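Fold this sequence, please.
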Amino acid sequence: MTDSFTALTESKSSGASAVFDKLLDSLKASKDYHRLFDATLMRRKQQLGLPLLRPTSLDDVPTDKRTDFEKTYVEAAREVGQLFLDAGQIANAWLYFRTIRESEPVAKALAAMPSRREPGDETEELIQVALFEGANPTKGVEWMLKTHGTCSTITSLEQQMARLPADDRKRCAAILVKHLYTDLTESVSADVQRRMALAPPADSLHEAIAGRDWLFQEGNYHIDVSHLNAVVRFARFLDKSSPELKLAIELSEYGSHLDPQFQYPGDPPFAEFYPAHRHFFLALSGEKVDEALAYFKEQLNAELDDADKQLIAYVLVDLASRIGRWDDAVQLAEQHLLNLEDSSSFSFSELCRDAGRMDVLQRVAQSKNDLVTFTAALLS
């Protein structure tokens, strides 16, 4: 260490550039990557004639030099982040890539890691980065299931779902649907074998419960019913291309057979929790679409509470949009959701755009005396 300080001191006679060359080489050799980041920015500040004592701070960078310094900042963060990735230090790498909003290198590194891990501090650190900080939520859910079990994973995902991008929500929901479906099918099949030793193995949950209402007698169930409730609710994040949608239909079918005390009601229009979800999933898969829309429209027309009516309409519009029933979606939204304009959940303007119904948006904008939206619709 003393030799390093001596080398830096001796190199000063050759100028600041030589000192920084020596400093950066020393930090790379010792794999002191955090200080390498600081030193890289310090070098650029020296070149720009700026104070050196706070190398990573932007506060002392004047406006005319900020773009130059920020470019170096991003490049240094990218370099140091990659060095940490190469060293297998995911959390340290994430610190830098997250700062410059480049999550892909860390997401790829996490995706390449085995899904099966032993519990421990390192695994907890990876779950923190992957799931709770959003670097690769899918991988985080896989690790949580392996190391914490279904209950903790559901609880954690409940907290994170709203923050995740739509694709991540779909992938995380798919993992849990598949996981719970496998566990439930095995449990039901084992129950059938206990009671009917000669029964042939079932190929699906649907087949395992078909014609066997006695499986549910006296309040019998085969999996934690709160887990089933949560996973079926998560399954609404699936889309019609998801292979797990078929599994979600069967999970809701199983739930519909449970004793009423275990069919916990949901928010409208899912008060009849499992039957309503089965309608939703079937329609999403392209089956019994008119029947499902009629089921939810009946609830919409019967609902007296304004807030619940809007909630039902939102679900209906979402479902109609996702299955390509655009005219239904626009009509329902015009009737019930014009006052709901939230970029994070719903936009009537965007719905009209996606549906190719800018004529409707023009009409609504004119009725509201909204010249700006009318012009946008007119010229789009």
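The first helix runs from residue 2 to 11. Residues 17 and 47 are 9 Å apart (CA to CA).
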